[in-house]
């Protein structure tokens, strides 16, 4: 009883402070089915979801490979926490800044590994995260500028063992 009351007040306190927590629909679907069926073997890649995320982010813009720096190790010793650094190298101005950066892992069951949003007040657009990889694959970083430009960078990563489904 004490745990439930504490948890409920923590959730209500977060909502009152204007914070929110949301999981993607695919994550909710995975958690609801995980209790019913145990995982056996590696989770399969989802190329259709990867293409969908890529198309949604780029829209009609033609991605350009200049202006986005991606730093990922070529060999990942720990596939459950692969360090990824993304930085927009174009000048950030009040007229044109990076609005959003996403990182996709093309062979993960859920390809969208993170999404970061920025404002002009940030003064820079860079982030460092750790992502989980299911197997050796290519990491894709995309950045959308206020002007509509889409920047893209990618790097192949070899993993030592499976990170998803462990």
Automatic annotation (TrEMBL):
Keyword Signal: yes
InterPro entries linked: SoxY, SoxY_sf, Sulphur_oxidation_SoxY, TAT_signal
Keyword match Signal: yes
Coiled-coil spans in chain: none
Signal peptide segment: 1-29
Pfam families listed in its UniProt record: SoxY (PF13501)
Keyword list, A-Z: Signal
Ranges for domain Ig-like SoxY: 56-164
PROSITE patterns, sorted: TAT
Descriptive protein name: Sulfur oxidation protein SoxY
